[in-house]
Specification:
- The chain is 81% helix and 0% strand.
- It has ten helices and no strands.
- The longest helix has 39 residues, at 200-238.
Length: 239
């Protein structure tokens, strides 16, 4: 029987639906709160999709195109994917907006406010979207690495990317550098990082934050990988 080729597009469709929900609630909250913070949230959601779109390009080109085209794609698109990957899980840090503009009445119980739950669920959905975009993007590249260079090297690459992504999220949230600044102004990023690492207080916070984000990403990805592997084994048994 012909071997079934794994395609992630059903999961992509679910993520598109979740994106519509996150975008819709963020626009409603912008109107509700009268602030413009949710404008940047829409931009951050778009950036969170970039690594997945790049991973899909890699998946479609590699194996179909000639060898030289596959290698060129891995070099150019793979480098872009590497730098943009932290933008996906960066959406986890948008949870701060759940509490930033909510002003509970001190004479009532805050969890009985509809506004609070709307803000909290919107922030949670956005964080979930970011983690799923991260996991699916990494899973596509992880599979490619495992097929090309071996299973253990694939896992080593995945773990390294989770670690690098954790540092990238810190840089984006607290130093406010963007992915493209790695190309346009790498010297300033290195100087800022050196200043943070050499300062005891800032260095400790950076270490604590990156470790927390690392474990959030790692455990989410391990679960995602286990579910994906379970689905793949079920298909192989039916064939």
């Amino acid at each position: 029987m012909k071997k079934r080729i794994w395609k992630p597009y059903p999961a992509v469709h679910v993520l598109l639906a979740l994106t519509v929900f996150c975008a819709g609630t963020s626009m409603f909250l912008r109107f509700r709160t009268g602030t413009n913070v949710y404008n940047s949230l829409l931009w951050d959601i778009f950036l969170g999709w970039v690594p997945l779109m790049l991973a899909l390009i890699i998946m479609e080109v590699v194996g179909r195109a000639p060898v030289w085209a596959s290698r060129l794609t891995l070099l150019v698109v793979g480098a872009a994917w590497f730098f943009f990957l932290p933008n996906a899980s960066y959406l986890v840090t948008e949870m701060i907006h759940a509490f930033r503009y909510f002003k509970p009445n001190p004479y009532t119980t805050f969890w009985l406010h509809t506004d609070f739950w709307l803000s909290l669920i919107s922030a949670f959905a956005t964080s979930l979207l970011g983690l799923m975009l991260f996991c699916l993007s990494l899973y596509i590249v992880h599979r490619l690495l495992s097929d090309r260079i071996g299973r253990w090297y694939g896992w080593l690459g995945a773990i390294m990317m989770i670690g690098i992504s954790s540092i990238g999220i810190y840089i984006g949230r607290f130093i406010r550098w963007n992915s493209w600044d790695v190309i346009s102004d790498p010297g300033s990023i290195l100087r800022d990082m050196q200043q943070i690492v050499t300062d005891e207080r800032s260095g400790k916070f950076m270490l604590a934050f990156t470790l927390l984000i690392f474990f959030v990403q790692a455990f989410t990805y391990l679960f995602f990988h286990a579910v994906a592997a379970l689905g793949a084994s079920g298909k192989s048994e039916r064939t």
